[in-house]
Design goal:
- With 231 residues, the chain is of the alpha/beta class.
- The chain contains 8 helices and 12 strands.
- A 5-stranded parallel sheet has the order 2-1-3-4-5, sandwiched between helices.
- Helix 5 packs across helix 7 and helix 6 packs across helix 8.
- 31% of the residues are buried.
Amino acid sequence: MKTKILYIEDEPYLGKIVKETLEIQGYQVVWETDGARVVQHLGSFDPEICVLDIMLPNVDGYELCRQIKALKPELPVLFLTAKTETSDLVRGFEAGGTDYIRKPFSIEEVIVRIENQLALAKSKGTLAGPPREEIQLGKYTYRPSRYELLTPEGTLQLSQRESEILTQLAASVNRVIERKQLLMGVWGDDSFFNSRNLDVYIRKIREHFKHDPNIRIQTLKGKGYLFLVSD
């Protein structure tokens, strides 16, 4: 089943290009140009994520995001906008946005961020079924909401960053997760500094799983990671 995206953008050329490209990549997209007509799509289309411009006719993106969140608080909202001031970004998150992309952008970045938001929502249980309080990983039990990893040697208290990274890895068990996706999901950008931080955290998480030889975090050079959990 195709992932359903509600895309709100009033610039015709850009909207057409993004919609068609996402559809080529296998997504089902409803494209709306007028913020005042968006709410009606929430029930009829039931999207899994909204990609939302801020500067719209009739109702701006901030207000629209608040309306969306009032009706579907679990729905990820990805702002995609030319407004680049820090204050704009803060307003977007305060309105309920879950991620933010500044124009101009690459469609590859949009797709990575969409997939990241969907993975995070799924790991929290907001897209399918009840929240997962415990995730079984070989001999280990991971409790995301408590930042706890139950190991054969006892309980490890994870840092927030460790937990955010492990949550994304656990949502992609035995599948490749791109390095950029991890960086964007945890830090919001893929700068050199954050990239080095990610290396440190990956080493720490590997060390946490040393008691189970059936669990490995494999680095794929130039690509990302493969979190292998075998029986």
